[in-house]
Amino acid sequence: xxxxxxxxxxxxxxxxxxxxxxxxxxxxxxxxxxxxxxxxxxxxxxxxxxxxxxxxxxxxxxxxxxxxxxxxxxxxxxxxxxxxxxxxxxxxxxxxxxxxxxxxxxxxxxxxxxxxxxxxxxxxxxxxxxxxxxxxxxxxxxxxxxxxxxxxxxxxxxxxxxxxxxxxxxxxxxxxxxxxxxxxxxxxxxxxxxxxxxxxxxxxxxxxxxxxxxxxxxxxxxxxxxxxxxxxxxxxxxxxxxxxxxxxxxxxxxxxxxxxxxxxxxxxxxxxxxxxxxxxxxxxxxxxxxxxxxxxxxxxxxxxxxxxxxxxxxxxxxxxxxxxxxxxxxxxxxxxxxxxxxxxxxxxxxxxxxxxxxxx
Amino acid sequence: xxxxxxxxxxxxxxxxxxxxxxxxxxxxxxxxxxxxxxxxxxxxxxxxxxxxxxxxxxxxxxxxxxxxxxxxxxxxxxxxxxxxxxxxxxxxxxxxxxxxxxxxxxxxxxxxxxxxxxxxxxxxxxxxxxxxxxxxxxxxxxxxxxxxxxxxxxxxxxxxxxxxxxxxxxxxxxxxxxxxxxxxxxxxxxxxxxxxxxxxxxxxxxxxxxxxxxxxxxxxxxxxxxxxxxxxxxxxxxxxxxxxxxxxxxxxxxxxxxxxxxxxxxxxxxxxxxxxxxxxxxxxxxxxxxxxxxxxxxxxxxxxxxxxxxxxxxxxxxxxxxxxxxxxxxxxxxxxxxxxxxxxxxxxxxxxxxxxxxxx
Lengths: 360, 360
Known about the structure:
By secondary structure, chain A is an alpha/beta fold. The first copy, chain A, contains 14 helices and twelve strands.
């Protein structure tokens, strides 16, 4: 087990027609790594990838004939393996797959750029989706902002161009319309553009605006969901967002507006059986807690602020609507933060399992 | 590019001290697969894994001395590489990592079972998190229910025991307390138990109840967020959940109760600038739409039902509070479904990009 050595193995699913043999050899002090590596290799191999390999083989001739440019041909193959065709084959619908391929081949005249709007999750790189990771390996250029953890940006293809487009309440490095325009122009040059956004692109990510611009310019795009901060922080802090004893629904609200003002009306949030989650609520925290109390919520309603959730710097500050503002003020809290309000917060003490490294 | 061949490569990050050499050879018709495989291999390798390898090497002697049972030693190494120690090393905090290791070594007396409560996402296996996939390869036994796509269960370690624990409104294969008890007893036997739940475990998953039982029995557990159905369906249907022109907040509500009754009060949901998402809302759909209209919502409020979102069988039915019930009744709609209500639904026509395979 923990002896150095060499292991070589063949993926069984591919053996019948198209063996892909991988040998993993480890030298020096990395035997466990080799073992882990080997176990992780299966990630890329749905059980019946072999059928796709067979189809690829049959197509090689016709494709080389129709697509003479090697770069274009590479992209065609990549799209074939990663796209709906693979899905169809894996689902046993090979006839449909062939029809689709014929159509794609016919219209493959020039290389078109495209944009992938991808959620990068709450911080822990391990919480990236497999799809996000895959597109990160394919993109020619990556646009990211401060809500994407550096450790995640580092995982993008090494030769991909990286563009920081900022976004912070007080320092808009690039206004939203400029980001939209940049996406359109990069894709217009035929590039494959990854737009990486913290959390989920459709939950307080303004992702909708970015792809509206793309749709207007008829640029192909995909949208890939990510673990939103509420889900990530809840799981890593041991605070279920719904729970039959405490909350039958959950509501995500943003704690700040573009102009910096908090338009907060506490009387919108009186349901005691609903968990409230405020994104970017650090600055507005005192206003939010006071507003809820003034609207009639019990000042002892439990509330938690999660700092840098899911990362090694996670810290959970727990109190009530009445006490949390002072608790937070007495700590050196760093963004990003998430505010969770409701009875479910009482479960934190019992269900907490993740040890963040942050301390005072 | 699309020629058969053999490629061999070394991970640069490991070269300095601990090379792990992987050679990928492809035979027959699988050259593209080998290429893709190679690109995907980097998934498992954060940039400075080399430092972990170095630490492993230094520890080999002391660990072999303290932990004589090979199975137990294997688990120790696995936990070391996957656990907080690796995080600490990657974050450059090696001193803390060593302190932690010493403590863990000291208390490693017997093998303890543990439970991983893991969100499996909305259906597309590509939307699993890397962490979920990793734990799926480690678990000794997997408990799953009908909301987890079979294609995802198939990705678990091949020799893992699989236990179907059911859960459907009308046919409770295993009552919740029995599932809780099963988790406790399996972990009590020293097994590593993966509890796979559709979507996210803390959003309508009753995950909180399951780990409460574990906490009461002092069984170690982890909770791994998953892409919740709302995020997955929204992205794949081109319906942003928040959008500055349409919705400044979003609310997740469940469309059914355990006893089958819908306790729905439309006047809780009058905010026109909030997106409403109903989980499991198919049966209650007519009640929900009528309730909202009776409470005062505009009958023309856009509404969409997403069937089997993110899968090849995704279908999006779009209408209004007034028209959607009839539209849905005239189609053969299959669970799971998600109901999205609010102005953001109008964006679907423009932003739709994913072609599900379902048709009438």
